[in-house]
Structure formats: structure tokens, C-alpha cells
Amino acid sequence: MDLERDHQTLGEFIIENQKDFKYSTGELTRLLSSIKLACKIVNQKVNQAGLIDILGKFGKENVQGEEQQKLDVFANAVFINTLSQREVVCGIASEENEDFIRIENAQYSEKSHYVVLIDPLDGSSNIDVNVSVGTIFSIYRRITPDGTPVQMEDFLQPGSQQVAAGYIVYGSSTMLIYTTGRGVNGFTLNPQIGTFYLSHPNLKIPEDGKIYSINEGNYAMFPQGVKDYIKYCQAKEEDRPYTSRYIGSLCADFHRNMIKGGIYIYPSGTNSPNGKLRLLYECNPMAFLAEQAGGKATDGFRRILDIQPERLHQRVPFFCGSKNMVEKAEEFMSQNS
Ligand code: P6P
Predict the structure, then answer these.
(1) Residues 73-93: what's their mean pLDDT?
(2) pLDDT of 245 strictly over 80
(3) CA 122 to ligand 1 centroid distance, Å
(4) What local confidence, expressed as pLDDT, does residue 109 receive?
(5) Is the separation of the CB atoms in 337 and 301 below 8 Å?
(6) How far apart are the C-alpha atoms of 307 and 315, rounded to whole Å?
(7) Residue nearest to atom 2 of ligand 1 (CA)
(8) Beta-sheet pairing, 101-102 with 263-266
(9) SS percent in the chain: helix, strand, coil, step 5
(10) How far is the CA of 250 from the centre of ligand 1 (A)?
């Protein structure tokens, strides 16, 4: 296979599809290109993590009270700095920052229409044991007047208003998967030349799958509906060929389920009444991708993309993946509600 001849690059793909995007003025193209650049920089460090002094803990906690890893801090700085250099982003919200960031040189520009929400290095607790980690991003068009300081309401939009979303999984190969609302496409990085090539066009999540992903260590704290669904999956009947796979990195678990079919569940629990995952920069982007690929994403009852956010770092229970599997899990949830 001749990559250059047989596969479009991410840059070519973004430009070619710009015309399909209703605001196609080139801003989103430049924004997606900034994200592409930032993830190449992060990818290089993730791949070297074992060789240079960037493993391990940073010695501080983030706004979530989670131990910050050095790569967390590095990735957050790379995405914020890279995105801030362009006049298309007027604000950024990150898992690693308590409040959103106003991009000084852009927020008063009539040209900056977008806000970005990111989880710069999701699954970072896996870094030291060489398990795949990822970056998740969500992009909205601002709703406050152009040329004025960006406000919290620009970030607290329901997921259905996203103009683009995606993730990068830094795994056995580095892949960038994204959507602008016209399907989902996956690009694989050729690290020798630093170029992403279209490797997974028009990704679709199989309507059914055999994999359920959940941290069963929390079983005792799960809602009864989740316990019943797990027992349903574990009953070895001929129509239930299920197996459990849980990596502990949302991007990696989601990506596997995207390719093979499956369901990922992070439910509410006694210690975390709304679950662990954050609505704005984990659940909403993954829900947008899941629906664009023919899958489903709910909190066990409500469509994730319909939830009106109230706080930047709010958490929601998350059921996401193959449509029929999510609907089966919802059946058990409604029987116990
Ligand atoms: P637990 C990583 O911290 C993360 O946000 C997701 O990437 C991952 O799926 C989940 O938390 C793992 O959480 O409680 O099972 O370790």
C-alpha cells in the first residue's frame, strides 16, 4: 500500500469537507489543524514518557482533586498554548483548570467564534504502566455576541449544539477520530513523517456487540438496574456471548467498542452519585461521535446530548456504545427506577 497515493491526509480531508460545514469560513479548518498540531506534540512526549523525566506525579491535584501526572500538565499546556495562538478560539475549558480561559487576543475579535472544551490527557493514571491514554475535545460556536468577552454560557451548551468533537488515542498507533456532524472518520498517524492518513472512513458502531466495559470493582455501589444488566450479560445463554473488557481509559474503551461493538458504562454509585465522567469534555463529545456512528449515549434514562449543563465540571452517569446494548441496559434501569 502506498500511503501517499492511496490515502487522504487529515489536512486534505478537513479542507475538502470544509464546504459541507455551514459556517465554512476556514475558521474551523484552522481550529482543527491546531488540534492536529497539538496532539502530534503530545504524542511525541507520550511515546517517550518512559525515556525522559516526564513520568510520574506532578505533586499537585487538579480541580477534580485527582493527582496530576506530569504528562497531564504538559498536555494541558500544549493544547491551551497551541489553541490560543489562533484567532478562532475565544475561550477554552479544560478538565485541568477550575475556570474557563478567555483568550485575550481573540475574545474581542469579531473573527473568533469558537470555544473548545478538552480533557487533555484522559486516563492519565495509566501513563506509568504504558496503557493507552487519550485526548478528548468538544467544539461549540459561541452564543454571546462576537467581539465581547466569552462567558460561561458559551460553555454550558447542551451537547446537541456541538459543531465538532473528537478524540486522539495514543495507543499501539496514534489515531485521531472526529466528527463535524456528517459522520465519523478516523485518521492514523504515520510517525515517521508526522502525518495523519484517513484509515477508517465513515466509522459505524455495530448495532450489537459482545463486549461490556465497566469497572466491576464498584459492583456493590451500582444501581440495581446496572447490577441486573451485568448479571444478564454474564448469564451464559446462547444469545448472550458477552465478554468483559475494561482498560480504564475512556478513549481506549470507547475506541474498541466503536470498532468491534460494545457498551461502556460508568454509572452513578454511592461514592459518586452522578458517576465519575464529566459531561462537557468527556460524555458530550463521545456521545456526539457515538450517535454520528449509529450508536447511542444516555445517562441510563436521558439522551446525553439533550442534558442542559449547569456547571463546567459536572458529572453524569454514562451508558454509551452499540445501540441495542445501550437500549437493553436502559430497560434494566427503567425496571428499577
Ligand atoms: P475508574 C480516567 O480517569 C477516566 O476518566 C476514564 O478515562 C476511565 O474510563 C475512567 O476514568 C476510569 O475510572 O474509576 O474505573 O478507575
Answers:
(1) 89
(2) yes
(3) 8
(4) 65
(5) yes
(6) 11
(7) 123
(8) unpaired
(9) 35, 25, 40
(10) 6
The three cell numbers of residue 283 are: 460524555
* Ligand 1 contact, 123 CB (< 6 A): yes
Cβ atoms within 10 Å, residue 47: 12
Could you tell me which residues come within 8 angstroms of residue 228 by beta carbon, excluding any fewer than 6 positions away?
332, 335, 336
Q: How many angstroms does the Cα of residue 325 sit away from the middle of ligand 1?
A: 21
> Residue 209 belongs to what H/E stretch?
none
Give the atom of ligand 1 at the shortest distance from the alpha carbon of 264. Answer: 9
Nearest ligand 1 atom to alpha carbon 278: 5
pLDDT of 20 strictly over 80 = no
pLDDT attached to residue 320: 98
pLDDT (tens digit per residue) in 128-147? 888 999 999 999 999 999 88
> pLDDT by residue (tens digit) across 147-171?
888 999 999 999 999 999 999 999 8
d(CA 124, CA 122): 5
Q: What are phi and psi of 114, to 5 degrees?
A: -120, 150
C-alpha gyration radius of the chain = 19
Ligand 1 in reach of 272 Cβ (< 6 A):
no
In this predicted structure, the answer to whether residue 296 has a pLDDT above a threshold of 70 is yes
Cell numbers representing residue 18 in the block? 470544509
Single-letter code of the amino acid located at 260? K
Give Dmax over CA atoms of the chain in angstroms: 61
125 alpha carbon – ligand 1 mean position (Å): 8
Q: Of the ranges 86-90, 237-241, 273-277, which one carries the lowest mean pLDDT score?
A: 237-241
For ligand 1, atom 12, the nearest C-alpha belongs to 248
Nearest Cα residue to 168 out of 96, 75, 91: 75
φ, ψ dihedrals at 58, nearest 5°:
-90, -10
Q: 3-state class of 262 per DSSP?
A: coil
Q: Among 151, 28, 12, 22, which residue's Cα sits nearest to residue 87?
A: 28
Residue 269 CA to ligand 1 center (angstroms) comes to: 14
Instruction: Spell out the domains of the chain, with CATH numbers in brackets.
Output: 3-200 (3.30.540.10), 211-335 (3.40.190.80)
What integer is the mean pLDDT of 306-328?
A: 98
